[in-house]
Amino acid sequence: MHHSHPGRATARRAATLATVLGFAALLTGCGGGSDDASDQGGSEGSGGDEVTLVTHDSFEIPQEVLDAFTAESGYRVEVLRGGDAGVVVNQAVLSRGNPQGDVLFGVDNTLLSRALDAGVFLPHEAAGLAEVPEELQLDAGEHRVTPVDTGDICVNYDRGYFAEHDLTPPETLDDLADPAYRDLLVVENAATSSPGLGFLLATVDAYGEDGWQEYWQRLADNGVEVVDGWEQAYYERFSGAGGSSGDRPLVVSYASSPPAEVAFGGGEELPDEAPTGVATGTCFRQIEFAGLLDGAANPEGGRALLDFLLSDAFQRELPMSMFVNPVREGTELPEVFTRYGATVAEPWSVEPATIAEHREEWVDEWTSLVVR
Description:
Layout: H1 8-11, H2 17-20, E1 50-55, H3 63-73, E2 76-81, H4 85-94, E3 103-108, H5 112-117, E4 121-122, E5 146-158, H6 159-164, H7 173-176, E6 185-188, H8 194-207, H9 212-221, E7 225-227, H10 230-237, E8 250-254, H11 257-263, E9 276-293, H12 299-309, H13 312-315, H14 318-322, E10 325-326, H15 335-340, H16 352-370
Parallel strand pairs: 1-2, 1-3, 6-7, 6-8
Antiparallel strand pairs: 3-9, 4-9, 5-8, 5-9, 5-10
């Protein structure tokens, strides 16, 4: 369900971007005083001095950051990517007690209850949690998962289109149903796409469990287009993506998509503003978590890795590597990220337990309303 993020899709092709832009991790001091650390945990279970991180295809962190963790802890990180987040979580549920690795990263608030109800994770109160806002600690009572990053799923708009047509870009969910924006919006399928589901959940929060259906009927009457996933919506249908031939100036993407457009735009100088903007009244807050897998071969290494995911060295890499917000307060953010990204003060949200209880029913109703 976790479709590639703007820039995440291109991240492998542009792995050198971080270095080029001068945001390479200045991992000073990380290796200090740890020359003898490689002996720690070497005999723990059958995992030895290797710790395996199970994650989704969008996970991108520079190798030197993982190497810094190795220098500090003695554990080498093996990254095992298993498809999108929905698939990875399903696999973890199916292999509970005999997991593919030690730590799972990438279970978000739309999938969280499913994983917790299935008993996939062991508790670990990560070092550094004191630096994480309480509202992001959705399992604070038991610490079975640790929040790592947040992102906001939001409607993006093509600034050029709206300037050209002398039309004010929409700001709210209500605006999107206005006839002034007829045939302009493309969304992802809520049944197959993480941003698609997040956007549906935003409307559930905004209009209520009995009112969102009428809202989507208004969107359908206003010509909303539905495609399978984020890459198709953003790169093929949206007119504001670099190199796109799409004709829809409104797309469901992320609040951090404009900085990605700038970062991957390849210009010599930073522009006055990004080519795309964010309708901040349309956003759903996504929180990604990591947890120690029940049955991990190297639980000690897993706990050390969870602690590291909240460290400054890891957290400050998140904005430009994965275009998400670090959860650790006070993490320094790169200029491209803050200058062109949108800050969403009051995103829409739905409790994980409510999502788990109603997701299939809501997606079925949504499908019968708009996918025909």
